[in-house]
Amino acid sequence: MLQVSHVDAKHGLLQAVRGVSLVVREGEVVALVGANGAGKSTLLRTIAGAHPAAAGTITLNGKDITGLAAHRRVALGVALVPEGRKLFPDLTVEENLLVAGRRARKGPWSVKTVLDAFPMLEPLRHKRAANLSGGQQQATSIGRALMTNPQVLLLDEVSLGLAPVAVDSVYECLAVLIDGGTTIVLVEQDLGRAMSVADRVVCMLEGRVALEAAAGMVTRDQVTGAYFGLARKGSA
Ligand code: ATP
Q1: Which residue segments constitute the domains of the chain, with CATH numbers given?
Q2: Which atom of ligand 1 is nearest to the CA of 204?
Q3: Does residue 34 have its Cβ closer than 6 Å to ligand 1?
Q4: Cα(199) to centroid(ligand 1), Å
Q5: What is the mean pLDDT of residues 16-20?
Q6: Which single residue of 2, 118, 190, 211 could bond 226 by disulfide (Cβ 3.0 to 4.6 Å)?
């Protein structure tokens, strides 16, 4: 469904993503892991069109989307849940969902189906986003991305800064999506969490893919080794 080929991305002179190639198949959950600064967020933002690719190509269902603006990628089915949630703080939960749904693709997601899937949000639907807990905001942010009826959902650091109980509830939301067959690329610092939900693990190191393996075929130690440059690509 999604194919990233030899993609570079830069921040000024700093090359954050170096020749990354990655394939995400329909219904697959890919965990993108790696140390701070490995380039995970930059790669995800480049796929979403929030950051320009300096080289390489990104295709969705065979269509080259590398040069498209972010909103055009949303219209084709690429949705990003950004790090830090980035909700409209003065809008309610429902209004945050509705804003995203205005130019949605056709599909199953609506305010009703999001609230059905994430029942924790139902009693909060008229509450301002600024007054929600971190976990509630994260669930709203995921719901907002779903409102665009994405083909692939890109999730950046969904558990960052959340209390463990909030992380549990966010992962309960993700379990609903995964059970429903949603295609997901998940950037996650918590390796245990990432490996528990992923079909495939891709570990980045200094902008490159250091390891890529089916989640069931790789141990935590092997992935941790790749974090620190101790494993070679394809060795797991
Ligand atoms: P983290 O978990 O810390 O977010 P990451 O793996 O997501 O790490 P990126 O955030 O993509 O990594 O950062 C990759 C590199 O690009 C790092 O060296 C980082 O300092 C740099 N970088 C990221 N964002 C910017 C920016 N806006 N301006 C300049 N450099 C940046």
Answers
A1: 25-38+77-227 (3.40.50.300)
A2: 6
A3: yes
A4: 25
A5: 97
A6: 211
